[in-house]
Amino acid sequence: MTRLAVMLSGRGSNFLAIHDAVRSGRIPAAEIVAVISNKPDAPGLSRGRELGYDCCDVDHRQFASREEHEAELLRLFGERKVDFVLLAGYMRLLSPRFVNHFRHRILNIHPSLLPAFPGVDAQAQAIAHGVKVAGCTVHLVDESLDGGPILVQRSVNVLDEDDSDSLAARILEEEHEAYVEAVRKVCGGFRVEGRRVFFD
Ligand code: GRF
After folding, report:
1. pTM, two decimal places
2. Where would a tag sit more exposed on the chain, N or C end, judged by fewer CB atoms within 10 A?
3. What is the pLDDT of residues 122-164, one digit of tens each?
4. Ligand 1 pocket, 110 CB below 6 A?
């Protein structure tokens, strides 16, 4: 069994998509062993509790430094023997030390076709730039912002009537599919050569 930890800060719809896929067997031989939020009031964390997951509220404001906050995360992951960390709307940067500890074992989802539009408000950046195709990317996390090796991408056409909210809603539907596909694929094994990822 591959042991997954989900980290979130908000709504948690990507977490729920992964939960559904694990439960239905679309992601086989895997289990979610922890749901962690740095925001105690994150709706995704309450949903995780309702679903009976091992949920931990690790509020970064309760720690003196990023290092101490991450030390607690590493302790929790170690205790639960976590194989992969899935960032699902986790709104805090991870330090190089943390990333290095979980090298090629942290996944993130970003609502743009990277390397276009990293950072915040990716969907609004896409609208402002006038792109005709937008989308989402699931990638491995490295020390850069939204810059690690790409696992899965899905595209969405931008319509004339779109604003950033309507575009974000359509991208979100694709995010749920893309994240499930990426988790299923990494659980099946992969290798990284430079920036390229090859699945077994
Ligand atoms: C998603 O748009 C994801 O791409 C971004 O944060 C949002 C999280 O949404 N990183 P949810 O909490 O999974 O619903």
Report:
1. 0.97
2. C
3. 999 999 999 999 999 999 999 999 999 999 999 999 999 999 9
4. yes
